[in-house]
Amino acid sequence: MTPAAAINGDDRVCVQTEGLILVVRAPLQRKAKTMSSQENKQTAQAAYAAFSNGDAEGAMRNIDDSIVWTVRGDNALTGQHKGKQEVGELWGQFLGKGFRTMPHDFIADGDRVIVLTTVTIDGQSAESADVLTYNPAGKLVAFDTISDPSLANQAFAR
């Protein structure tokens, strides 16, 4: 008897030969792993810790090359900074004004992590909320700060 095969809708291959029926599950195509909210939160926590410790390489480890970093307000830094090089230059300008960030809450949902933080620029502090967006691979692709821009406007006046 010649074997006969059929593929069922549930990814099984059924082979019948010599009165036997073999059912073999076909290998499933694997989807790329999507990072969980908790994993994105841990990535954000590690990046803030690295930044606070002066470890720029560690802070940039999980930043995608296509990052878009938005600075709000009406100052010399206002706008979108695209790519790791521009973000690194932006960080240098912030650090030149004594910038510090002290995160105190991390809230994760899907591909976004909201970080509530106290920022200090030129010796003045204010509360801020950073919105971090991650791609499925767990790389930071967008960063936006929602806060009163007056500290940055003063420190980086046009």
Quick structural overview:
The protein has 158 residues and is an alpha+beta fold.
On the 0 to 100 scale, the average pLDDT is 87
The tally of beta strands, per DSSP, is 9
Please bin the fraction of helical residues: 25-40%
- Poorly predicted regions: none
Report the principal-axis shape. elongated
Q: How many DSSP H or I helices?
A: 4
**Cα-based radius of gyration, to the nearest Å:** 25 Å
Main beta sheet strand tally, sense and closure: 6 strands, mixed
Q: How far is the first residue's CA from the last residue's CA?
A: 85 Å
Q: Order of strands side by side in the largest beta sheet? A: 5-4-9-8-7-6
Topology order in helix (H) and strand (E) letters: EEEHHEEHEEEEH
Estimate what percentage of residues fall within beta strands: 35-45%
User: Structural class of the secondary structure composition?
Assistant: alpha+beta
